[in-house]
Design goal:
Shape: globular
Number of domains: 2
CATH class of the largest domain: Alpha Beta
CATH architecture of the largest domain: 3-Layer(aba) Sandwich
CATH topology of the largest domain: Rossmann fold
Helix content: 25-40%
Distance between the termini: 21 Å
Number of strands: 8
Radius of gyration: 18 Å
Strand content: 15-25%
Bound molecules: NADP nicotinamide-adenine-dinucleotide phosphate
């Protein structure tokens, strides 16, 4: 979040940030991994901890091969949850499995709700990247008092079913990292640091660009890359 409310902070060797935003990277974690965490990992951590522990619970991560999604799987497993992930291809399913998802469902080819219901008696927390696509699925697979944390806007506007969420007392929580209080930010970042200490976070597939090729890096990012786009700063 170096660039948030800051004139500088990205594509730079150095930048100035408030001290609480300068986080510790364990000696064993390399800078490549550190560069891929930041916003996605802190977002995923907040989704998992803001409404109570997921230890021993079932968690559903939509878009499990995405930047937030893979962190959600790894942090969910590290927190002691069983993790179910949705993806759109076999290559992405492999990524989600490698991150530790116990069940991976291809949302383009499978009946997501019925596959998940065959696996879980009730999902307790959902990391939702596309409420537009998944509102009914979430309502169907969630257990009593579950929380659907909406962090993404993929697919645009959503239509919410009313009866299933009402009868299960579900909550739909919408979050934006830039609105976190300093306490929430520190708590989520602390969670990421502890997971890093335990070696629970791994490097996503990456495509590297030199700083001179920053235009191509942006173009690939716009296209929705497989994995992460990293700039190598001299
Ligand atoms: N609220 C916040 O504070 C916050 C923080 C970080 C990111 N975000 C937002 O969250 C979204 C994801 O960010 P990201 O960095 O993880 O992007 P990303 O790496 O591009 O991942 C996007 C993911 O969305 C998945 N997806 C799209 N439609 C889906 C559907 N119908 N069902 C299941 N998965 C679906 C994609 O999966 P497939 O490719 O398999 O379809 C992909 O894995 C972006 O909109 C971003 O702006 C918000």
């Amino acid at each position: 979040m170096a660039a948030h409310t800051n004139r500088w902070g990205t594509a730079a060797q150095w930048c100035v940030v408030p001290a609480f935003k300068a986080r510790r990277l364990p000696d064993e974690s390399d800078f490549l991994l550190g560069a891929t965490l930041g916003v996605p990992a802190v977002t995923a951590a907040h989704c998992l901890i803001a409404d109570g522990s997921v230890h021993g619970r079932d968690v559903l991560v939509h878009g499990g091969a995405g930047a937030v999604g893979r962190c959600g799987i790894e942090l969910g497993r590290w927190s002691g949850a069983r993790v179910v992930a949705t993806v759109s291809s076999e290559a992405k399913a492999e990524v989600a499995r490698a991150c530790g998802a116990e069940l991976v469902v291809d949302y383009r080819r499978e009946d997501v709700a019925s596959v998940i219901r065959g696996f879980s008696a009730g999902i307790h927390r959902v990391l939702e990247v596309s409420l537009a696509a998944n509102a009914s699925i979430d309502a169907e697979v969630c257990g009593l008092n579950a929380v659907v944390v909406v962090f993404g806007t993929e697919g645009g506007e959503a239509t919410l079913p009313v009866r299933p969420p009402l009868f299960k007392s579900l909550s739909f929580r919408f979050i934006l990292l830039y609105n976190f209080s300093r306490e929430e930010l520190e708590r989520a970042a602390g969670e990421v640091e502890r997971a890093l200490d335990d070696g629970a976070l791994t490097l996503a597939p990456i495509t590297r660009f030199s700083l001179d090729d920053i235009t191509a890096a942006h173009e690939l990012q716009e296209d929705g890359p497989f994995g992460r786009v990293l700039l190598e700063i001299p």
